[in-house]
């Protein structure tokens, strides 16, 4: 993915979509909070607690993170509290002022509500993370249901997640849209059979646009409002 690549533009006919599945972190919410939290703030606190330099702590933690990528453990706050000896939910609350909704998200949710679509929040985020972020934003009431991956029992990067989710929700794969900022998630959904897939090319307000070479991409949700 690159910022100078011409994007694949979404070609959406809303008459053919009944259900919209939306990711949270990086898609609806600015991922700067999560990037800063895991890459800067947690290493700083971990370094202070373990007599390490910030650089030593960051290197050690990034290696720990990589070992559980694409699994439920990566998003499990209780797992990380146990692994690191830190109260991860409490640390998140200390910088929760950084939790922000992306531009045009509320406009898009209002649009979906007005045209009668069924809207689900489908996220790898842990239930404790959900509670913190929904408490700091106004997006929660828009969803017909909120499904964290821990409820499904699989991470979204696994095709079986989408099989289990379809059984839970009963959506039609041909008439369902998924919007996510994680290409691995979109690939897993496509492997299962979802075809209306949208990639968010600017998950963080502090990072440049990175269009997908495989999926229709948007920078802001206003591009989907017709």
Automatic annotation (TrEMBL):
Keywords: Hydrolase
Matches recorded under Pfam families: Hydrolase
SUPFAM superfamilies in the record: HAD-like
Keyword Hydrolase: yes
Record's protein name: Putative hydrolase of the HAD superfamily
PANTHER family in alphabetical order: GMP_IMP NUCLEOTIDASE YRFG, PHOSPHOGLYCOLATE PHOSPHATASE
Cellular component aspect of the GO annotation: cytosol
Gene Ontology biological process terms from the UniProt entry: DNA repair
Molecular function (Gene Ontology), one example: phosphoglycolate phosphatase activity
């Amino acid at each position: 993915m690159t910022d100078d690549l011409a994007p694949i533009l979404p070609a959406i006919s809303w008459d053919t979509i009944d259900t919209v599945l939306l990711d949270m972190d990086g898609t609806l919410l600015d991922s700067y909070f999560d990037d800063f939290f895991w890459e800067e703030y947690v290493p700083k606190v971990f370094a202070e607690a373990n007599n390490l330099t910030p650089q030593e702590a960051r290197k050690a933690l990034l290696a720990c993170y990589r070992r559980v990528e694409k699994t439920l453990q990566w998003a499990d706050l209780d797992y990380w509290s146990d692994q690191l000896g830190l109260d991860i939910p409490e640390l998140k609350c200390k910088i929760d002022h950084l939790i922000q909704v992306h531009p045009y998200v509320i406009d898009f949710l209002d649009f979906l509500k007005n045209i009668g679509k069924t809207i689900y929040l489908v996220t790898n985020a842990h239930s404790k993370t959900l509670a913190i972020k929904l408490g700091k934003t106004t997006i929660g009431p828009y969803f017909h249901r909120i499904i964290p991956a821990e409820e499904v029992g699989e991470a979204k990067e696994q095709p079986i997640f989408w099989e289990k989710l379809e059984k839970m929700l009963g959506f039609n794969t041909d008439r369902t849209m998924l919007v996510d900022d994680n290409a691995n998630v979109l690939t897993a959904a496509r492997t299962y059979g979802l075809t209306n897939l949208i990639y968010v090319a600017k998950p963080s307000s502090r990072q440049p646009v990175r269009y997908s070479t495989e999926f229709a991409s948007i920078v802001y949700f206003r591009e989907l409002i017709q």
